[in-house]
Design a protein that fits this description.
The complex is a heterodimer of chains A (112) and B (114). Chain A contains no helices and eleven strands. Chain A has 112 residues and is mainly β. In chain A, the strands form two sheets. In chain A, strands 2, 4, 5, 9, 10 and 11 form a six-stranded mixed β-sheet that branches. A five-stranded antiparallel β-sheet of chain A has the order 1-3-8-7-6, with no helix packed on it. In chain A, strand 7 and strand 8 form a beta hairpin. Chain A is globular and about 45 Å long. The relative contact order of chain A is 0.35. Chain B is mainly beta. Chain B is built from no helices and eleven strands. In chain B, the strands form two sheets. In chain B, strands 2, 4, 5, 6, 9, 10 and 11 form a seven-stranded mixed β-sheet that branches. Chain B starts with a strand and ends with a strand. The chains are: A mainly beta (112), B mainly beta (114). At the A-B interface, strand 4, strand 5 and strand 9 of A face strand 9 and strand 10 of B.
């Protein structure tokens, strides 16, 4: 059973606009959340994270929002750039989990 | 360069060959992982090593054999693979297995089985 879901397999956005990537999780004991970015034929690279004691964390163009009551995580990229085109994975840990659990990924395409 | 180095970057092998993938990290991490990523599929966790001891094996066929001789090196030995094993194989390491410091991934080995 998938504990972390990214329901949109793909997303297309115009350059300069906002990209919003979503992630839902099932276990309320998860307390740390991360986003990774992956280019084709490369390994995922860490982008931004958030602890469950916060509801927002910002780093430049990237902001992660956490809604614990809804068990929902989102990544906002603004303004979007063509170089942001990649697969984005959310990941989480906490509770009895002994490893990071990754979502299925969302392919973001930023159109020039 | 992420601090996790994987070699080779690309590998083509026949179904009767034996080859090995190598992963090396000098980040002082205690846990190392093998993941498989097939086309348009999510990351699949294959093996987890913590302090050089295998702690997880996710129902991976025996034609994949991991080895962790020390905390800095991880190998994946391959033999009699099938064409459906063609994928990107990713190594990762972490300071703690639970992931509170994140995982650091290598660039992967693109494996093609012919």
């Amino acid at each position: 059973d998938q504990q972390v879901k990214q329901n949109s397999p793909s997303l297309s956005v115009q350059e300069g606009r906002i990209s919003i990537l979503n992630c839902d999780y099932t276990n309320s004991m998860f307390d740390y959340f991360l986003w990774y970015k992956k280019y084709p034929a490369e390994g995922p690279t860490f982008l931004i994270s958030i602890s469950s004691i916060k509801d927002k964390n910002e780093d430049g163009r990237f902001t992660v929002f956490l809604n614990k009551s809804a068990k929902h995580l989102s990544l906002h990229i603004v303004p979007s750039q063509p170089g942001d085109s990649a697969v984005y994975f959310c990941a989480t840990t906490g509770g009895a989990t002994n490893k990071l659990i990754f979502g299925t990924g969302t392919l973001l395409a930023v159109q020039p | 360069e992420t601090g996790v180095t994987q070699t080779p970057r690309h590998l083509v092998m026949g179904m009767t060959n034996k080859k090995s993938l190598k992963c090396e990290q000098h980040l002082g991490h205690n846990a190392m992982y093998w993941y498989k990523q097939s086309a348009k599929k999510p990351l699949e966790l294959m093996f987890v090593y913590s302090l050089e001891e295998r702690v997880e094996n996710n129902s991976v066929p025996s034609r994949f054999s991991p080895e962790c001789p020390n905390s800095s090196h991880l190998f994946l030995h391959l033999h009699t693979l099938q064409p459906e094993d063609s994928a990107l194989y990713l190594c990762a390491s972490s300071q703690d297995q639970r992931g509170y410091y994140g995982y650091t991934f290598g660039s992967g080995t693109r494996l093609t089985v012919v």
